[in-house]
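Sequence, please.
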């Protein structure tokens, strides 16, 4: 049975998006049910850090790590963060970004903006725009625009692992 409303909770009409001509409806249905997305709260229980092997010879273009940094068969990863850390030694220089080959596809998509690493500095790529799902066979990579000397790059991912 519907009921009349004499007073709204602050912001409720705006939150639910039911204002019309500046006013909320005078009547609600029997039940008003709120839904909260708790996915992230469950995924927080199993977060781990995964680290790649160090690539000591990056080249212009898409690069993998010496031991491919892959989501194993039978797993699905929720990737909270993926960053690449580059160390440019004396005389070294690098412009690069973090990348990913989703689901084993042969295309390394950029995940972050490109960043330049001057000589004798250590820099990591910026944060992801938002977390993403990585299926079995997904490979974490990096993409190089320019390189001089022999900088090294390591990949780091914070993930929640699920079995599939």
């Amino acid at each position: 049975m519907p009921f009349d409303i004499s007073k709204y909770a602050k912001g409720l009409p705006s939150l639910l998006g039911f204002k019309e001509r500046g006013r909320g409806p005078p009547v609600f249905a029997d039940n008003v049910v709120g839904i909260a997305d708790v996915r992230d709260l469950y995924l927080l229980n199993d977060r781990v850090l995964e680290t790649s092997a160090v690539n000591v010879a990056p080249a212009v273009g898409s690069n993998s790590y010496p031991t491919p940094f892959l989501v194993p068969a039978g797993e699905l990863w929720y990737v909270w963060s993926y960053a690449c850390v580059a160390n440019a030694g004396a005389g070294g220089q690098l412009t690069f970004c973090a990348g990913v080959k989703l689901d084993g596809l042969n295309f390394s998509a950029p995940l972050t903006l490109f960043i330049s690493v001057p000589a004798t500095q250590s820099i990591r790529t910026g944060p992801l725009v938002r977390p993403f799902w990585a299926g079995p066979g997904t490979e974490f990579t990096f993409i190089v625009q320019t390189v001089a000397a022999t900088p090294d790059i390591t990949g780091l991912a914070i993930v929640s692992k699920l079995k599939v």
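The mean pLDDT is 87.
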